[in-house]
Automatic annotation (TrEMBL):
Protein name: BD-FAE-like domain-containing protein
Alphabetized UniProt keyword annotations: Hydrolase, Membrane, Transmembrane, Transmembrane helix
BD-FAE-like domain location: 78-168
Pfam families on file: BD-FAE
The organism's place on the tree of life at top rank: Bacteria
InterPro entries from the UniProt entry: AB_hydrolase_fold, BD-FAE-like_dom, GDXG_lipolytic_enzyme
Length: 284
């Protein structure tokens, strides 16, 4: 019998059956206090969004979620971090992640936090297209953004790490900071996450960074937490190995003591490890 995504006892990926694979990608279940982390992010982001110079809900497309928030560092010609939120392409919103601008802004980096349509309202290929549109909107002169268009890093957490890696092939991107990212969509297509994503074979092959190496992609930094789920750590390790073999400028790092949700504290802090990696990608 051929294994399918709905088998519960047959090994379908790396010796795991469906239930085991579901658990291998369930970050919320793996971190007992994950709801508290999300509430904390909402509270911190509400404060950030109330700041006088925050530019909120700037539409880059014509759909409900195709807008972005812009947090300027107050320095003319600052570099830019374009941040893509996580939630396995089907949960959360940009409004929860405004707090990540704190660290980069303190170091003179502008931050744009991008919203996008969630599955099942959009296929993953459509979400990738929306990120492309957001980047085009930002680098166009029409938005009145005063950042250095030669220094644009795309960063993202979890599903956003996947989207950042895909975006690293865009010509306006000078680097990608991929935090706890997904780089091979095969196991995603075989577990509970695909109930809403509905990934097909074409999307798996074309939108998995591990399976579609872009020779001209910008330098990437892959960062995972030492206490993250083993599959998340494997995803980054496998992609780093394959990308390096093809000559891509890529480095990987593990942050000991961090789980999936605590990772973003290292970006929200001005001296955090992720802020430091961002500055390195920007050549600072």
């Amino acid at each position: 019998m051929t294994a399918t995504a709905h088998d519960t006892t047959t090994a379908i990926f790396r010796g795991m059956d469906r239930a085991t694979l579901d658990a291998a990608y369930n970050n919320s279940e793996a971190v007992a206090d994950s709801p508290n982390w999300l509430e904390q992010w909402r509270a911190r982001s509400a404060v950030r969004r109330a700041a006088p110079h925050a530019r909120l809900d700037l539409a880059y497309g014509d759909k409900e979620r195709t807008s972005l928030d812009y947090f300027a560092a107050g320095v003319s010609g600052a570099p830019l971090l374009v941040f893509l939120h996580g939630g396995y392409w089907q949960r959360n919103s940009k409004e929860m992640f405004s707090f990540v601008a704190d660290g980069p802004n303190a170091r003179g980096v502008d931050v744009a936090v991008v919203g996008y349509t969630l599955a099942p309202a959009a296929r993953l290929s459509e979400i990738v297209g929306e990120i492309d549109a957001a980047l085009d909107f930002l680098v166009a002169d029409t938005g009145g953004f005063d950042f250095d268009r030669r220094r644009v890093v795309v960063g993202g957490w979890s599903a956003g790490g996947h989207l950042a890696s895909v975006a690293s092939a865009r010509p306006m991107v000078s680097g990608a900071l991929c935090i706890s990212g997904i780089f091979d969509l095969e196991p995603i297509a075989l577990c509970y996450l695909n109930d809403l994503l509905r990934l097909d074979r074409r999307e798996i092959e074309q939108l998995s960074p591990l399976r579609r190496i872009h020779a001209g992609a910008a330098p990437q930094c892959l960062v995972v937490g030492g206490d993250e789920l083993p599959e998340l750590r494997r995803q980054s390790a496998d992609y780093a190995e394959v990308a390096s073999r093809f000559g891509l400028p890529i480095r990987s790092r593990t942050l000991p003591g961090h789980h999936h949700f605590s990772m973003l504290d290292e970006l929200a802090g001005s001296d955090g490890a992720l802020t430091t990696e961002l500055l390195s990608l920007l050549g600072e």
